[in-house]
Amino acid sequence: MLELLIVSTLNGVLFGMLLFLMASGLTLIFSMMGVLNFAHASFYMLGAFFGFQISRWVGFWPALVVGPVLVGAIGAVVERFGLRNVHRHGHVPELLFTFGLAFVIEEVVQMIWGKSPVDFRVPEVLDFPAFTIFATNYPAYKLFMLLISIGIFVALFAVLTKTRIGLIVQASLTHPNMVAHLGHNVPLVFMLVFGLGSALAAIAGVIAGPALVTQSNMAALLGPILFVVVVVGGLGSLSGAFVASLLIGLLQTFAVSVNVSLADVFAVFGFTPGPDSMLDDLWRVTVAQIAPILPYLLLVLVLILKPSGLMGTRET
Amino acid sequence: MTDRVVNAVVGSASRGVPMSALARYGVWVVAAAVLAVLPFVFGSGLALTVMSLMGIAVIFSLSYNILLGQTGLLSFGHAVYYGFGGYLAVHAMKAIVANGLPVPLPVIPLVGGLAGLFFAALFGWVSTKRSGTAFAMISLGLAELIGSSALILRGFFGGEEGITADRTKLLRILDWSFGPQVQVYYLIAVWCLLCAILMYAVTRTPLGRMCNAVRDNPERVQFVGYDPRMVRFLAFCLSGLFAGVAGALAAINFEIANSALFGAVQSGTVLLATFMGGAGFFFGPVLGAVLVVYLQLMLSDLTGIWQLYFGLLFIAMVMFAPSGLAGLIMMHRPLWRARALHRMVPAYFVALVPLLVMLAGAALMIEMFHHLMVKAVEGPAMKFMYIPLHANAVGPWLVGLLMAGGGFLLFHRSFRVVAAAWNRTGVADAAGGRP
């Protein structure tokens, strides 16, 4: 039991930190432009595939740097030549633009790397068990992922709150006109923030690629969970995104190891539901089986109890 | 400036005058006649199947536009209500056949509609608490929730393979078995027309007007004493109702309901169709649905990467024509009224030629790239528009690059020609194009 607890906590925090790597960029971009970037998970996927391709050519470590830089550049180009032009049509076309972009990126990735998973392996330096708790070998690569994401989290926090650049970015989010009057190039700040957000997602992609499956549907699989994170945390709230990321990471990891169904719960009270009703499965399905849908249940629950999200202040 | 205001006032006043009965009902009579005659013009099995799909897509897109166009709610999960409509329709058909109830097939879509309404009321209560981006994300989350649950709850949803029913086993009226596709087509056509009329009627009611107000300025809606959330909720329920009808018709058409009905592809397609057709106009989604069904079938025959072209077309529409096809058409209405439309033809021709050259060049390069990446085992020889070429040779790439680049430059320059021609008609000014 203790073993399960420790390993699940580690895995949950790891997944949560990965989610936050993406959610942080998404939240920054949302606060900045007022539009949720639907293609954010696609940048994560691009990061994973770029990481795979570059590590084939020159190794994993250069890929960890070059991949995110390339994706960040793509993100900046998308903002400069795409979103900025669509901006004048309003928020719905902006969101739809990123929706179309996600569609096109998935098609292009399928065209180049195919539909089946690619063989993206953990670098040999990190391919050993870091430590053994009870009987489980915890891989060093996962520890490395955890360290990278925590490191980036700390760096991001420090840059945003302690440096001059961070202050200008923060000010541009809330008072773009005032910042522009003070002589700063606000459109450039927006472009850089968009690029940085995309690069953060790509870092998540490069480090998650070898541990999870690098496949052309990974954006479509992760995207909705990512949006759940930002809505549950409260749109535009960075700390909310952090809490929600960890919450959903832990929730999903723990749920997988719980083999209890509603029928079991009711059996404790000496009640057994009738055998052959059409909604029979509702009783017999275990928590582990519904783990994939738990984030969405959490979303509905949070919306009923606190419509603006855990730490959100905005209404829309 | 004063003239413009007067014009605007007179314009809106004249629109407020009740239309003649001919103008008001004529369009529906014509639509009914066209729907009735179509199978005699295009009688092949393929054409009937395509037209049936178009009819379903039209209802679905119109129902989606109650949200997107009329209430300003962007939903990424509209297929949920379509899916429930389909599932409940199949369950109803099975139950009717099993118990021998005297219920004919044509009322089954009503079951689907009620299912859509019920679930829209259930989920809408939660999701319409928010508008804007949050609403969009909630709709996405709900769609994922339902889509995944459909695979878990096998008893009701039938798992991967779904559930099937036989549409010919129900009570027959006038000896229509609904076995042949043409009979199904007429069933879909009647429901399509009925739903379109009802949805149009809704836009004329006070509720329809309040929906537009909520879209444009929810704050002022509150000032005049309405609850924007309630208006959003009602619009959501109506939208779910008609989506359910569309889903039931789809289930009748395919005689199966599976979890693909709930899929993200379904939700995405209806969004694409509605937006590309033009969410700002009632007939926009109709155009969009017909176009998207047609493109899906035609492009998938022509090329293996039609979805890429589809996505690029969508992005181009969002960037350059956010009011959709209907918006482009309605832009020309003043010209048509002034009988000046023909004067735009030469300018459009000047713009069209480089545009086509540019698109052909881009498509050539995309196809060659696709051939090299995906069909590498077949060797470099391929055909583009019946012209044989080698995908790894320099020549075709140069031609493609020249066509795309040169076409783009010329197309960009042709904007001036078009703008000049537009100004020369003199109509745009009078219509308020510029002060």
Question: What features would you describe in this structure?
Answer:
The complex is a heterodimer of chains A (316) and B (435). Chain A has 316 residues and is mainly alpha-helical. Chain A has one domain: ABC transporter involved in vitamin B12 uptake, BtuC. In chain A, 72% of the residues lie in helices and 3% in strands. Chain A is built from 13 helices and two strands. Chain A has helices spanning 2-33, 40-58, 60-86, 91-113, 140-162, 164-174, 176-181, 186-211, 218-233, 238-256, 262-268, 280-284, 294-305; strands at 129-133, 136-139. In chain A, strands 1-2 form a two-stranded antiparallel ribbon. In chain A, a hairpin with a 2-residue loop joins strand 1 (129-133) and strand 2. The longest helix of chain A has 32 residues, at 2-33. The model of chain A has no long low-confidence stretch (mean pLDDT 84). By secondary structure, chain B is mostly helical. Chain B has two domains: 25-322, ABC transporter involved in vitamin B12 uptake, BtuC (Orthogonal Bundle), CATH 1.10.3470; 334-430, no CATH class. Helix content of chain B is 74%, strand content 3%. Chain B contains 19 helices and four strands. In chain B, a hairpin with a 2-residue loop joins strand 3 and strand 4 (387-390). In chain B, helix 3 packs parallel to helix 8 (181-204), helix 3 crosses helix 12 (264-277) and helix 13 (284-302) packs across helix 15 (324-331). The radius of gyration of chain B is 24 Å and the shape is globular. At the A-B interface, helix 3, helix 4, helix 9, helix 12 and helix 13 of A face helix 6, helix 7, helix 12, helix 14 and helix 17 of B.
Helical residue percent band of chain B: over 70%
Average residue pLDDT of chain B: 82
Largest interface: A-B, 54 and 46 residues
Average residue pLDDT of chain A: 84
Strand order of the largest sheet of chain B: 1-2
Would you list the SSEs of chain A in sequence order as H and E? Answer: HHHHEEHHHHHHHHH
Low-confidence stretches of chain A: none
**Secondary structural class of chain A:** mainly alpha
Structural class of chain B: mainly alpha
Distance between the ends of chain A: 43 Å
CATH architecture of chain A: Orthogonal Bundle
